[in-house]
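S2.1 Query sequence (Isocitrate dehydrogenase (NAD(+)))
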Amino acid sequence: MPMPHTVTLIPGDGTGPEITTATRRVLEATGIEFEWDVRQAGSEMLEKQGTVLPDDVLESIKRTKVGLKGPITTPVGRGQRSANVTLRKKLDLYANLRPAKTYPGLRSRYENIDLVIVRENTEDLYAGIEFQRGTSHQEELLELIERTTGQKLDPHSALSIKYISVLATRRIVRFAFDYARANDRRKVTIVHKANIMRLSDGLFLATAHEVAKEYPDIQHEDRIVDNMCMQLVQKPEMYDVLVLPNLYGDIISDLSAGLIGGLGVAPGANIGSQYAVFEPVHGSAPKYAGQNKVNPMAMMFSGVMMLRHLGEKEAAVRLEKALMQVIAEGKYVTYDLKPRPDDPTAVGTSQVADAVIERLRRL
Ligand code: NAD
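Output structure tokens follow.
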């Protein structure tokens, strides 16, 4: 008997627990043995323990090395930092990998999209270096800015620091090229706004071009982020692997999810040198919590990525095929994959899991 894979399972909050149950069921139906270490994070933990990300969640992932995670709500503009950002930072999950691929049956305006977004996950405007208006640190910083640049900024302002380092840029760009090499990809596109942010994005761009020289077998090019958005909408089939700083990566991956048929089918992985956490691109969709309504496929496709990471290639291929068959048939899919969102034939979250398990049994 092969050893079961021990995985930290974080249901999250909002619709997270429902899609997590559905995903766990299909993963178990592949025949691969799992030992789930279920850990709670999210709004409920904030009430019970005063933090959305209790320490035992991090300790568990440090032990198991692999996590599968549902979305966690981040209250806008409140004191608590995002549990998602904290998790990525504390475990140094520096690469956020977000594939966007069209499957027959998805309601997309395009065919043949097969993009992989590689987003830097630890710095940029997401580093959490912010200064509130009216604080002594904000005042000090405004003084420093005036002294060094001559610009007098409005005291009624808040500041967020865009932080880009050579080290983090090097490792994310290497990750993108290594990924391209290992997965028979032909091209890496470096995305930036170095024409305006000449120092921070300029450093990202220059470092990325330097790293690219180590990979003469893979083509590379660069695009300014606004132009990239237009290019992706006009001719997404021209692009392959994209590597981006944190904020552009976040935005472009939602755009790419839209290109392929929506957030309901967009998976993701956060990968570091020691740990990996798999999660859908979408958030907790709290307005649908407890309604057995939202699409669990984005988390199931994240499960496919996890199976590959665990070396279970055959099971990954079978689960992906089962998902493709359910999508192509178009019958047992949630509202977001129907021609109209109010389609009365849409099924619920758990019925999607039933249909995928049914296909898996026949494969
Ligand atoms: P969201 O992704 O939760 O929802 C955006 C839209 O997409 C909504 O209309 C929603 O109904 C729809 N949607 C999302 N997932 C779906 C699914 N599986 N099936 C069908 N439709 C789906 O984004 P939001 O409303 O901006 O964020 C809600 C909360 O989630 C926020 O607190 C945000 O901070 C958090 N969030 C968490 C993560 C994470 O845990 N990694 C990621 C993004 C957002």
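The longest strand covers residues 95-101. The mean pLDDT is 95.
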